[in-house]
Prior knowledge:
Helix content is 23%, strand content 25%. The protein is α+β, with helices and mostly antiparallel strands. Strands 1, 2, 3, 4, 5, 6, 7, 8, 9 and 19 form a ten-stranded mixed beta sheet that branches. Strands 10-11-12-13-16-17 form a six-stranded mixed beta barrel, surrounded by four helices. Strand 16 and strand 17 form a beta hairpin. Bound molecules: pyridoxal-5'-phosphate (PLP). Pyridoxal-5'-phosphate binds at residues 140, 265, 300, 303-305, 329, 331-334, 375-376.
Amino acid sequence: MPLRRSKVLVKWIFENQHKLQTVRCCSSSLRYKELEESAAQPEPLAAPPSPAPNTRPHISPEISFKSDDLQVRLAAPYQLQPKPEAGDLGFGKFFTDHMLKVHYQRQLGGWQKPEIMPFENLSIHPAAKALHYAIQLFEGLKAYRGRDDKIRLFRPDLNMERMNLAAQRSGLPTFDGDELIRCITRLVQIDQEWVPHSETSTLYIRPTLIGTEPTFGIQAPESALLFVILSPVSAYYKTSTDGAVSIYADPNVVRAFPGGVGNRKVGSNYGPTIEATARAAKMGHHQVLWLFGPDHELTEVGAMNIFMVYINDQGDKQLSTPPLNGLILPGVTRRSILELASQWEDLTVKEEVLTMKRVIELNQQGRLLEMFGAGTAVVISPISRVGFLDEDISIPTMKQAQPVFQRVKDTLLAIQYGHIEHPYARIIS
Ligand SMILES: Cc1ncc(COP(=O)(O)O)c(C=O)c1O
């Protein structure tokens, strides 16, 4: 092409970039053809109507993407990521060679074909709704390599259900969770050498859904991007030498409130916890114990669900956690602990409101035995100290001969790493 003509073309592109937006944000797998063919048909349905909170998401598979459409583009040798030493892993610092992307474009009929591709940066319009109104959500689950060398996921269906509930709350498109599990399975299979050959490390899976529509206006986005990235991880955070954590309960800050989104895994729940966590750290604590209301109800600890073990009024050992009242994330670990422990005959298991007054009373009476946090990232985190107002409360968690937290942790790890066969673990490779 003569130089002058190409200069004119470059100038035209520069001046008309905005008109190319639709083209730029579409990848080769977008369904132009299918769209043309269905042009005569009625408009695709918008997101399904919101059901009452806490019900199962109303998903109709016709509007989901399909794992059968998955397209795979493998990384070239120069695109492979350097593999870290096991001792350097930390949490979420390294990423694998591939990622999964599924675009959603309302104008093009909704969900597009899922693609696995070499890990890459995202290119996102500065006006994308996710960047301004936190129209986004994320999930966290893990792939575990067992001693039999098989790779397992732990109850991924529950993560999918939670993801869809968060999507509904934020006006993001919902999808069929089984289809995403199949896509994630393929992604983990492709990057399977990144699943650590160790029982102290795992491959953390981070599905994320963001509203990408590049317009101001607080409305359900017309376009979105679902992506999944993988990160080999070891310890989530530092503990004291005995493996326990110290937590600080500040009654002046709340993580969630009734009618809010404490029960949804949306990014806007996490950014605002940083200042309080840093303040707790300055006072020598590892995490924040999130309280709510005039009775100082215990809700969660850091990014974990909270559990307490104590001797109840009947003289029995009881494992308790606060009920799912909208302030609390319905943790997969929480639910699994409740289900597993309720089969143990020597333990009473209860969901009940727990207050700081009750913690202090039980502790003074010598009936409080243990406190611990539970979540996918940490599994179980025993708590040995609680800072509250002017008090520094010692919790005898690490002094128990046969602590419940250890039994719970051993049981979960045995399922996750395949020491015992259990329906919670799904073998994927
Ligand atoms: C606020 C909060 N609570 C609890 C949990 C534990 O949930 P799960 O067991 O599903 O990891 C998490 C982690 O996702 C969390 O962020």
